[in-house]
Amino acid sequence: MDAAQVVRKAFDGLDEAEVKALVATGEECAHEAGTVLCHEGRLEYVFYIVLEGTVAITQRFSDGGTRHLAIRGAGEFFGEMALIEKKPRAASVVTTTKTTVLEISDEHFTQLLSKSPTVAITILRSITATLRHSDQASIVDLSRKNAELAKAYGELKAAQAELVAKEKLEHELEIAATLQQNLLPSRFPDVPGWSFAGRNVPARTIGGDLFDVLQVDDDHVGLLMADVSDKSIHAALFMAVTRSLFLPESCRSLSPRAVALAVHHWLLEVSSDANMFVTAFYGVLNPGTGQLRYVRAGQDRPLWIRRGQEAFTQLDAEGRFLGMLEELDLEEREVTLSPGDVLLLYSDGVPDAVNAEKVNYGLERLARLLDARRGDTAQGICDSVFKDVFDFRGEAEAFDDITVLVAKADD
């Protein structure tokens, strides 16, 4: 298709003389793909008729994005607005293929409009169509942005509500953690010839471990280490209930088995959750004689370090969890602690602590530490255990609560 044919297509109604005059006023120019013919924001006074190829018309958004306006091909024109308004280009035009255009200068374009009503009307129609298309595109863009804003606003409101709920929950957990720590002993009974130390560090804000030294009567104290299954708020409440049950029951009997069984039956009464149970070690110590009677309801076996002996003993006894199954049999055993002996009660969070290499802290390391620190005070031994576990774990995540109770018979 030659230039004359394209001009006839672009401006339907022109006679042959007008077609020839229009072609004669312009200059045919060929451009490679990617050539920018019109630059948005620049003063450029050239009118283009596409003879062959295609061009893309785009417009910048204020946020730096780009909006695609149109594709123009053979028989279509562009660039008229800047010439009519004498203002900078409102859009950019770039060739998308190898393209030939008829370029008409500002002077010739003005003469063309004044001499040819048909050209003027055609350009006016084109301008009207372009404005209509631009308005529709603007409406679509505005609708899209409004939808995006509405979505973003909804997400922001949801995020704010979630943040408020999270902050409220965190505040409530902090209160629960404070209350829970207040349930644990801050001081122990003053027992001549004996010293005690204990500490609990939960894996989360709140935990399910419990330790205590109970004043049973004038001649006996109870040693308690317990661990509630799970680490939820429910577990923390179950821990509080367990401690509240041990306190009165420990004063009713000097038999650890009788006390633990009474607590077991109470837990069955107050809990309807079959997955919630308690492992426990409970012993009744006569400080004057060193006699310790105890039961072990699924709890880790305490370590007993005897004065003058390198080997350690684990206090074992048969028994299952408290508060789980109705039928429960607990074996009660007895040992005698002598001056200089150390008894370490601990939760499974101590030997099960894992470092970054996925290696467990282990019972052997705990026993070696206890042997090396046997000459320390009960508090010194307790502090050493926590420091060694934390040093071993490093930056690895804590998966379980860590709880320790130390009882030491003075030399």
Report on this structure.
By secondary structure, the protein is an alpha+beta fold. It has helices spanning 3-10, 16-25, 80-85, 106-115, 117-183, 233-250, 256-270, 363-372, 378-393, and strands at residues 27-31, 36-38, 46-52, 55-60, 66-72, 77-78, 92-95, 99-105, 194-201, 209-217, 220-228, 278-286, 291-297, 303-305, 312-314, 333-336, 342-346, 402-409. The strands form four sheets. A five-stranded antiparallel beta sheet has the order 9-18-17-14-15, covered by helices on one side. Helix 4 (106-115) packs across helix 5 (117-183). The model has no long low-confidence stretch (mean pLDDT 85).
Summarize the main sheet.
Answer: 5 strands, antiparallel
Radius of gyration: 44 Å
> Which topology of the largest domain does CATH recognise?
Phosphatase 2c, domain 1
* Terminal Cα span: 114 Å
Question: How is the topology of this model organized?
Answer:
Elements: H1 3-10, H2 16-25, E1 27-31, E2 36-38, E3 46-52, E4 55-60, E5 66-72, E6 77-78, H3 80-85, E7 92-95, E8 99-105, H4 106-115, H5 117-183, E9 194-201, E10 209-217, E11 220-228, H6 233-250, H7 256-270, E12 278-286, E13 291-297, E14 303-305, E15 312-314, E16 333-336, E17 342-346, H8 363-372, H9 378-393, E18 402-409
Antiparallel strand pairs: 1-8, 2-7, 3-6, 3-8, 4-5, 4-7, 9-18, 10-11, 11-12, 12-13, 13-16, 14-15, 14-17, 17-18
